[in-house]
Amino acid sequence: MPSRTGRHFLQIPGPTNIPDRVQRAIAAPTIDHRGPEFAELTLRLLPCLEAVFGTSGPVVIYPASGTGAWEAALVNTLSQGDRVLCFETGHFATLWHRMALSLGLDVDLVPGDWRHGADPEALRLRLAADPRHTIKAVCVVHNETSTGVTSRVQELRRTLDEAGHPALLLVDTVSSLACIDYRHDEWGVDVTVAGSQKGLMLPPGLGFNAIGERALAAARTARLPKSFWDWQPVLDANEHGFFPHTPATNLLYGLDEALRMLREEGLPEVFARHARHAAATRTAVKEWGLEVLCLDAREYSGSLTAVLLPEAHDAEKVREVILDRFDMSLGAGLGRLAGRVFRIGHLGHLNDLTLAGALAGVQMGLQLAGVPVPSAGLDAALDVLRTG
Amino acid sequence: MPSRTGRHFLQIPGPTNIPDRVQRAIAAPTIDHRGPEFAELTLRLLPCLEAVFGTSGPVVIYPASGTGAWEAALVNTLSQGDRVLCFETGHFATLWHRMALSLGLDVDLVPGDWRHGADPEALRLRLAADPRHTIKAVCVVHNETSTGVTSRVQELRRTLDEAGHPALLLVDTVSSLACIDYRHDEWGVDVTVAGSQKGLMLPPGLGFNAIGERALAAARTARLPKSFWDWQPVLDANEHGFFPHTPATNLLYGLDEALRMLREEGLPEVFARHARHAAATRTAVKEWGLEVLCLDAREYSGSLTAVLLPEAHDAEKVREVILDRFDMSLGAGLGRLAGRVFRIGHLGHLNDLTLAGALAGVQMGLQLAGVPVPSAGLDAALDVLRTG
Amino acid sequence: MPSRTGRHFLQIPGPTNIPDRVQRAIAAPTIDHRGPEFAELTLRLLPCLEAVFGTSGPVVIYPASGTGAWEAALVNTLSQGDRVLCFETGHFATLWHRMALSLGLDVDLVPGDWRHGADPEALRLRLAADPRHTIKAVCVVHNETSTGVTSRVQELRRTLDEAGHPALLLVDTVSSLACIDYRHDEWGVDVTVAGSQKGLMLPPGLGFNAIGERALAAARTARLPKSFWDWQPVLDANEHGFFPHTPATNLLYGLDEALRMLREEGLPEVFARHARHAAATRTAVKEWGLEVLCLDAREYSGSLTAVLLPEAHDAEKVREVILDRFDMSLGAGLGRLAGRVFRIGHLGHLNDLTLAGALAGVQMGLQLAGVPVPSAGLDAALDVLRTG
Amino acid sequence: MPSRTGRHFLQIPGPTNIPDRVQRAIAAPTIDHRGPEFAELTLRLLPCLEAVFGTSGPVVIYPASGTGAWEAALVNTLSQGDRVLCFETGHFATLWHRMALSLGLDVDLVPGDWRHGADPEALRLRLAADPRHTIKAVCVVHNETSTGVTSRVQELRRTLDEAGHPALLLVDTVSSLACIDYRHDEWGVDVTVAGSQKGLMLPPGLGFNAIGERALAAARTARLPKSFWDWQPVLDANEHGFFPHTPATNLLYGLDEALRMLREEGLPEVFARHARHAAATRTAVKEWGLEVLCLDAREYSGSLTAVLLPEAHDAEKVREVILDRFDMSLGAGLGRLAGRVFRIGHLGHLNDLTLAGALAGVQMGLQLAGVPVPSAGLDAALDVLRTG
């Protein structure tokens, strides 16, 4: 029976492992957030951050979680009673939907089976049924963290364009930014929502809104009450490198370093690495004779893989055994998937051998929990890593 | 001409200097925020945090700044159009007032001269003029960070009680918590708002609401739209040591350590230390022949001292000289005090010799900036430190 | 082709991976090494350190590497021209032998094939041939870091005892302390030499001598010139918690924390963990159809496994591929083993999944370097980890 | 009575305060000391380190304290029975003298009063009395850490040159390197000894020998036994960026960063800063009516100031009060100065306000300990800082 030693394997789909460089950056002394050194930091940061979103436009940084950034996206662009279209792609899409309701929006939810992304055809039909453009915004979770399904944002945009529908496109990239190819400007997204604790390799505590021009225009007339989340004071203060609220200085140090690391690796290489690790993971799952929750190969997630267990087995039991015996954290099944799936995060600061160790742990844990899986799973994953 | 070396003197009234112990605690690896180790952390934290607020009731922690916690206090207890009473004690009171307006509240502002705290007599008159109890909440900044004036919260409470007025008492303790004596329960405060980056000796990034029973009751009927800030899901999840949103894990590590440090020192000792450092600072100011902005000795702040310069001098010039020559950051005059005052923070992780160094820097900086002050200022401050 | 990201796999046989807790302990501010806080640290440390050596006697800490601690063992116990018996168990034994020569000792070297430990029978013969007890010391490397062979110290001791020979027994435990069962007192070792950077999970920079009573007695008459290495001033100063030279304060912080971690896990559990990881590794090697360098199962090392490649293959090529493709450092073949073996360190702060990842990397690297090994190697290792 | 909080004032003459940047550099993960990344580090480091010594020649780095580096200087250049000339400038000179004796050298000690540096005239006389050049080395402590007296190395060199005497000049710069102007090559020093924990702003744990050509030549014939300290294997391995022993990797990270900081500030600026802080300190001491131990203004130390108390007072009492009341560590009187002096370190990572705080603490502590000193001391020091 092994003891608890060595480095914990944090293979949940976020928060992810903080690189040592980032950890040390964060541990620097806090400085005056109204002084010249701070302004330099902000003005150096912002363009690099924008590049990660694929935008030349503004990105607002909140000292808040990604959930807060969702709220910011809504309250800056919408007014009480506005109609909003959400897609039930999984647990987080459901939460965002619930938030929209709480804020007093009129929300249509396109139902889903939690195994597919937002359906462009369903969107087409909803838009066609809205000739008077009462739908003000379409909310999509790019990579659904609860299911490991990546919606095809480009196709959704095309559908909006083809319908000539002016609804804003709001996209949650909390678990895809800096993991899965994403382009705010090129894809015509209006507001991109993100957080610090996944592909950006930081602890939780920063939320982001990348804001397109149409969203900025919408913000001028949006009437949902807002103060903390209001974009405008942030945009104004950012001009000179400052913030209207006290910024999370130490996380900004970390962000500065994390952005440096992403530039060093190169965004295309970052995306390719995630895709490769995801492919290796799915290969293992399939060789184990288990099911990847995501049913459409076009929607496989580069960030995480949700594994569906046969009915007879309890995914929570598997997670417990793995935590207990191998000191590895995996993601639980959320909402209606509770007990049915576990989720392997393979995003952020990760490399082949850590993934190999993680998959070895999953394989051994499944076996110990009584889910009979062959060792061919890991072998096949290693083939992908070795040859890919 | 000195070079930039040694440790920066961060003597703004927050963010404050992070103790090494806290810095290192924050640098620990992020863990699974849904795992058992995290739950232990939360359940260990919360009672200790409550003790700092002087409450046995719940304290909600947000991954957000203190400004966010202001918003939380309002949206959880009030409804659109509710009448709220604010006191214009300084810049931050004004910002909170503006926030209340933005959120759709009907705000009465008791004007002030920025040199006094919230006036109990003014409150008495306002309450007397409100026999039908249309005022739903009274918002007070305990320690006004822009002026160094500490309002007498207990007297305000007594005034409310004597008037038999049911308005909630919401108090901002961002720059007083763990610096200046404060007792949420004993003083009958309904919501106490705080942040991490001052007396709690953490980087910015956590906001707090201590919630009294009357506020919890009010929350049940409050109708301002809310989601991220909603207390209830946090209270529910906290029961088991979790959070509904992704918590700022690494700052919670820091909070755990900071609370340990506060317990080691003892809250009464923490308050006495701040009072002593404040007394030494005011002594220096007076011996320099300058004016402490705060005019009422009962309202002197233990956290910071705002120094008013004679008309002929520019406080910004003084701050620049001090930053440039002595690598010390002081607080600027904010709002209507811009250029007229500078602020010396003496809160958080501070000791006699650091304060002595800071006051030496202020004295030399004033002299270099052409404000003729005698060295008796520092001498007198040292007398206080030596004998106090 | 993978990018360089994630945590480096440091699987050399030391320095080993520093636990986060230790890293953070080391980053604490340096204190006055002549003050009361420092004395407390030393007096707390020393008994815990002694327990790890299995001794109740003194352990001297040098601000130096393990090599320095070798020198200390020799110069404190021996005089110019003294006869010393060394065993050629591998590269490090050879270096120690060379050091003894440099210091002016008369050294007999028992030749060896670098695949066995120090041979008790050879020792018996040498002692038998020395009726006049001209041999003053026997130097043995407990775990030979260059070969992964662990000498049977207890049997060597017994041989000395049976021969009634008074030679001192000096043992190098640089790569076995806190990895492989070792008992200074019980086994009658006279001087145990160790370093910080292996089982103690610290960066390099501390060397140790555990000193038995006979060695202390020998030190009184030993005449090799010495000053820095002289035990006596250290022992005298340690009485009060101090050191005669400036101690490596920050590494002592780390040592304090590492000793805490070892106590938490329990030394028997630490040894069992190392043995288990070593067994898993050897299982992989054998299933790969490769040879473990160590030929005697009684001498298998718990700390590292040296893998002998077939003649046709270049071990350096394998290491290069693995470093390049999988960002893992393995140990090179040293001295006469250069190019023939590579060494897998599995000591220090390690767990099952990290080992699994490391073995996966070795397997893939061998395959990429053209050494045809079956994936059954890793599979078999995982069987050990899963069932062991 | 103040509590223990805020940052400790470490004003001993070393170890000095570690800059945050250096602390964080040291906390990076240990890497393979035989890998390419390590070689890069060494090869980047060494030229920068040489520049700090003012030499183009080799500097050997030991994973050891400065005391060890003393021993290295002796055993590499001298043979048993060689005659060596030492100057009794203070406690550390005495220790070095004692070490030379322990190593079997024949040592002449020029007596001293511990208030002056090594006397060039005394040297002239000793050399004149040695026409047969039996003196093989002259050992001088550049800055005597126990007294705050800086010997005039250039004059000593000139004296040797004028005498045409071939003795090697060995200089200890443990507390002067990167504090006080020093030039190994230009001044014709043969071996310069240093440590990491003072002007280099690192924790203790590295010792240095800068080696001139004549010393290298001497090393070829020196016969004192040596192994760990032997220069040659280090010089050989350094060619390729490696070390023959396990190097103190994490301290080398810190050294890399510290050297970067010194380059950023500029060595002339570093020296000027130290001189300025020393001048301010002496000004305070004189205004307090106390005596600076150093009697010759040409020999004032830039690194520390030893303060001599009137007979009636106990310096240890003063230090205790200051540690207890103001959490500041000062240096004790060592050897024959015990109880008579205390030492203020003003070296390393220091700035004006920290020095001001330290001097304020000394002033208050003296007063509390019953040594009547006027506050004019600190005032005068501030005048120096303000105008200098």
From TrEMBL, chains A, B, C, D:
One Pfam family it belongs to: Aminotran_5
Domain Aminotransferase class V, first and last residues per copy: 58-313
InterPro entries, A to Z: Aminotrans_V_dom, PyrdxlP-dep_Trfase, PyrdxlP-dep_Trfase_major, PyrdxlP-dep_Trfase_small, SP_NH2Trfase/AEP_transaminase
Keywords noted in UniProt: Aminotransferase, Pyridoxal phosphate, Transferase
Keyword check for Disulfide bond: no
Keyword Cell membrane: no
Family: Belongs to the class-V pyridoxal-phosphate-dependent aminotransferase family.
Name assigned to this protein: Serine--glyoxylate aminotransferase
Organism phylogeny: Bacteria, Bacillati, Actinomycetota, Actinomycetes, Kitasatosporales
